[in-house]
Amino acid sequence: MSEQCSHDCASCGETCTERAQEQADFRAKLNEQSHVKKVIAVVSGKGGVGKSLVTSLLAVLMNREGFRTAVLDADITGPSIPRAFGITEKAKGDGTSILPVQSESGISVMSLNLLLEHDTDPVIWRGPVIAGVVKQFWTDVLWGDVDYLFVDMPPGTGDVPLTVFQSLPVDGIVVVASPQELVGMIVEKAVNMAGMMHIPVLALVENMSYFKCPSCGAVHRIFGESHIDEIAKQHGIATVCRLPIDPALAAAMDAGRTEQADDPGLAPVIDLLLQTQAQS
């Protein structure tokens, strides 16, 4: 404990034995029949920037590298992961655990939409209930042996991100944004929250960064000039990706064919994960 400790952990950014113990107390126990090596959370400061697309692609690309991957859809009120993988069947149980649904290439997926009677049924729950369901996806789902579990987070810095950061052993986060000035400010909120929770930011992904004309090859920055390098430098984040506006990729995701899509520019994140894997 620091000599200047005020005993108010809520307003303190220091790491100490007491804080470590406090954080450990929030950790939820993984399903006893499961073993998850790495947990990567994909976050955004606001909605509509392509976070679910990036989450799905990271799981697909690491799966192509030979790793066992899974996706935990923590966006309870706006789940889109099952549709991205073309999954229509419902999740089942074995009496003690919930069984995730397998995608065509063997990626394990758990989402609230896999438990609802209809995909369009609204989830009208308060924050603590939603956060509790996310925790249950960690404790009650039989994930089996997984090398990389990617968590598709809801936008913002509210109940669910806090629950994930405190309850799951998150190894790092990938922040997804778009180029607008306002979004740049919101990105910093997500980055700063990760810093307060002592979780490293692995990469910044700028989606819809530009559009390349298929006829003449000219590059158009429809949403304005990028500020992602400035934010990355400010926070000491070395890995940055820029993804283009690609109608074909968006259409593939909407049609449930994400597993057949080409990498639009996430190779630097994949390389970083491979390096981390080699060092562990």
Short description:
The protein is globular.
Structure, described:
The protein is of the alpha/beta class and 280 residues long. The protein has one domain: 3-Layer(aba) Sandwich (Rossmann fold). The chain contains nine helices and twelve strands. The protein has helices at residues 17-25, 51-64, 81-84, 127-139, 159-167, 181-196, 228-234, 247-254, 267-279; strands at 35-43, 69-73, 92-93, 98-99, 101-102, 108-110, 145-152, 172-177, 201-206, 211-212, 219-220, 239-242. β8, α6 and β9 (201-206) form a beta-alpha-beta unit. α4 (127-139) packs parallel to α5 (159-167).
Kindly provide the name of the CATH class: Alpha Beta
Task: Specify the structural class.
Answer: alpha/beta
How much is the average pLDDT?
Answer: 89
Helicity level: 25-40%
**Side-by-side strand order of the widest sheet:** 5-6-2-7-1-8-9-12
Radius of gyration: 19 Å
Helix count? 9
CATH architecture: 3-Layer(aba) Sandwich
**Stretches with pLDDT under 50, minimum 5 residues:** 7-11
Shape: globular
The largest β sheet comes out as:
8 strands, mixed
CATH superfamily: P-loop containing nucleotide triphosphate hydrolases
N→C terminal distance: 30 Å
Beta-strand proportion: 15-25%
| Overall structural domain count | 1
Secondary-structure element order, N to C: HEHEHEEEEHEHEHEEEHEHH
Enter the CATH topology name.
Rossmann fold
Q: How many beta-strand runs?
A: 12
SSE arrangement:
Blueprint: H1 17-25, E1 35-43, H2 51-64, E2 69-73, H3 81-84, E3 92-93, E4 98-99, E5 101-102, E6 108-110, H4 127-139, E7 145-152, H5 159-167, E8 172-177, H6 181-196, E9 201-206, E10 211-212, E11 219-220, H7 228-234, E12 239-242, H8 247-254, H9 267-279
